[in-house]
Every structure is written in C-alpha cells, then in structure tokens.
Design brief:
globular; 12% helix; 6-stranded mixed beta sheet; 2 domains; 2 helices; single chain; 3-stranded mixed beta sheet; mainly beta; 33% strand; 182 residues
C-alpha cells in the first residue's frame, strides 16, 4: 500500500459472478479464467493482495513461486483490466503451526458478529510459528484457523526476488521449537 500511484484490486469472481473461496486452503476447480476488479487504477504491480487477501501475480512471479512451492500453490488465470499474464496464487495448503504460547492473538467467539468463525483467529498481532509443526516441504501456506496470513519459505522469497516482485512485502516470522500441544 506504500507504493504511490499503485493499482488496488477488489473482488475476484467466477464468470458466473460468484465469489470463489480463495483463502481457505482448498483447490478451485476453475476451467475458465477468473475475473478481477480494479478498484483504483494505477501502476500494475508484480504482486498484489486484493481487498480480501487474494494474492495476484504476474506470470513470471507465479512461475517463480510454483517452481519452489509445487503443489502448495494453484495458479489460476485472471482477466483483469486488460492486463495479460496475471494469475491468482491460490494457497492450497493449511498448516496448524501457530505457537499460541508465544504469539499474540484474539479468537472469534460465539458472541461476536461472525459467530460462525468461533474458535478461529480474528487477529494475530504477533506471529511465532512452531518449527516442529512445519513440514520440510512447506513453502507457500496459510495458518490453520486464519484467513489472512500467507506464509512463504525463504526459498519462495528468494525466487520471487530473483524475478522482481514489486508490491510484495516480506516480514520475517520467528520460529519456536515447541512441540505441538506442549
């Protein structure tokens, strides 16, 4: 958001007009390109998150991610404002890995206005991932119980940086060595 004059992307939809679920770790059966909305015209970025945290990337950047992340990412063609070569990066892997003892968060409750999300993370202000809960091949995933965070490995980050990734912001997430449930 700090890049002046950048475009901003809104909703991503199927041709039917329905909004696909692209933040829950599920593959999307998409035979046709998705359609995207530009809410503020401006400079096209290599990497963008929509208003609803859907990652969108150029073909070169998507190829760099998928070459490392493999089956953790589904690249789906996107038609958006006449731009060619744009893809949605659908994270199809979710890992229960937040170290709740060392992280700071608030969970949704049944009393909140989104009671259907009770037990999930409403907000995580300090992330610490449990290293022992992370498989060695985890390169592009979301945290179980959260619809916001997108975690990439150092290898994915390096791949993205090697092709240029204007728009991406990387924040290092600390790891703990706690045993799950300990």
């Amino acid at each position: 958001m700090t890049i002046k004059g950048r475009w901003h992307l809104g909703e991503i939809r199927l041709r039917s007009g329905l909004e696909p679920l692209l933040d829950a770790g599920h593959p999307l059966d998409a035979t046709e390109p998705l359609r995207g909305e530009v809410t503020h015209a401006g400079r096209v970025l290599d990497f963008s998150l929509t208003s609803f945290n859907v990652p969108v990337a150029t073909t070169a950047l998507a190829n760099a991610v998928s070459s490392v992340a493999g089956s953790d990412v589904q690249c789906i063609r996107l038609e958006i404002a006449g731009q060619t070569g744009m893809l949605v990066l659908n994270s199809v892997r979710v890992i229960r890995c937040l170290d709740e003892e060392r992280s700071e968060f608030i969970k949704w409750t049944k009393q909140d206005h989104r009671s259907e999300l009770a037990g999930q993370y409403r907000q995580i202000t300090k992330h610490v991932l449990n290293e022992k809960a992370l498989p060695n091949d985890a390169h592009f995933f979301r945290i179980e119980g959260s619809l916001v965070e997108l975690i990439v490995s150092d290898a994915v980050k390096a791949g993205m940086e090697s092709v240029g990734c204007l728009g991406a912001k990387f924040v290092e997430v600390p790891l703990s060595s706690s045993r799950p449930g300990a």
